[in-house]
Amino acid sequence: MTPKLARFLDSGAYATPAVAVDLDRVAANFAALHAALPDAAIYYAVKANPAAPILDRLAGLGSRFDAASIEEIRACLAAGADPGTISFGNTVKKQSAIAEAHEHGVELFAFDSGEELAKLAQAAPGAKVYCRLSVSQSGADWPLSRKFGTSADHARDLLIEARDLGLIPHGVSFHVGSQQTGVGAYRTAIAQAAMVFTDLRARGIDLRLLNLGGGFPIRYREDVPPIETFGEAIMASVRAAFGNDLPDLLIEPGRAVVGDAGVAVSEVVLACARAEDGGRRWVYLDIGRFGGLAETEGEAIRYRISAPGIAGAATPAVIAGPSCDGVDVMYRDTGYRLPSALKAGDRVLIHDTGAYVTTYASQGFNGFPPPQEYYL
Ligand SMILES: *Cc1c(COP(=O)(O)O)cnc(C)c1O
Q1: CA Rg, the chain, in Å?
Q2: pLDDT tens digit string along 213-228?
Q3: If you measure from the C-alpha of residue 178 to the centroid of ligand 1, how many angstroms do you get, rounded to a whole number?
Q4: Is 91 touching ligand 1 by the criterion CB < 6 Å?
Q5: What is the DSSP letter of 356?
Q6: Residue 178 near ligand 1, beta carbon < 6 Å
């Protein structure tokens, strides 16, 4: 908890549920990523938290941006980002969105299919394009599934096709899955990407860009390796695979920029024992799966939860949201404990909720409002 967030919480000047984000911590995280990977350009993954104060602060620090939609691109431009520093990183884009981005001056686009390439050739002629590889996401707490990416062989063929369509075959990308806790996934993916570079050089195409994606983890309940460990492992792998002819490196961190800069405050709505559940204690909060805590699905992301000022021993609790939907249960198997004295009206803090919370909230499911947002 940063001093700024602690002061805000003490002030009580907010209604719950609320999410407060310390922008100084965002800036510090950006600096730490830059220090760990000084040779890589940082493209903040806007989807992690697209709030204007965050984009403004990062643009001021010289961050670049990875955007997934035309709406995110407009938000980056409104924050003062130069269109030449925005990557349209979604491999699934409406042609109208590609055309508008291209008109704005966005030059860099992702793809992973021939069909998307055809759209790019039409709507963004002459643009720089990079092909997303499908790589192992083992070790990631929040994998991005098989929804994106293609094989190295297919990527090679598509990048040749890109040239023939009048686009600039610029490089390759991958994403090792979010909250990736091991460096091995990056190592394997970098070696795969280097093969595409080698294959294409033999065909007279010089790729420039190696986009390493996001995935860098933050500490929730369990320790994770520090960002320096990732930086060192990535640079060692890049040097091993590329020798002296290093490509332009790019990272797209989201969670690692904003995750630990935020805290959520929630009010306990009910705490009771459920006879039907073997007498287990259930604690219902005014924030839940539909209030932004979507990454608790499968108990994948396990937030630290505390109840400051509530004395007494902690005992096991199932933790659920306020809605009438049966899936609105955050944790029942992970083994959470909360003070046994916790009762309706008390407040709990859900830590490190700066990423993938505010925009995951539904607009009033069951009438419950999304969390109020505060940027400090
Ligand atoms: C979501 C996403 C990111 C950010 O991932 P983090 O795990 O939050 O760092 C980066 N790049 C792409 C293409 C993404 O979809």
Answers
A1: 22
A2: 999 999 999 999 999 9
A3: 7
A4: no
A5: S
A6: yes
CB-CB contact of 289 with 266 (8 Å):
no
Q: Does ligand 1 have an atom closer than 6 angstroms to the CB of 66?
A: yes
- CATH topology for 260-375 is Lyase, Ornithine Decarboxylase; Chain A, domain 1 (2.40.37)
| CATH architecture, domain defined by 50-253 | Alpha-Beta Barrel (3.20)
What string of H, E and C letters represents the secondary structure of 254-304? CHHHHHHHEEEEEEEEEEEEEHHHCCEEEEEECCCCCCCCHHHHHHCCCCC
- Rounded distance, CA 174 to CA 187, Å? 12
Domain ranges in the chain with CATH number 3.20.20.10? 50-253
| Torsion over CA: 20, 24, 29, 30 (sign) | positive
The answer to whether 324 is a known catalytic residue is yes
What is the spatial distance between Cα 211 and Cα 194, in angstroms, rounded to a whole number? 11
pLDDT in tens, 236-259: 999 999 999 999 999 999 999 999
Answer whether 0.85 is exceeded by the pTM: yes
Which residues, at least 6 apart from 98, have a Cβ–Cβ distance to it below 8 Å? 88, 109, 119, 120, 123, 124
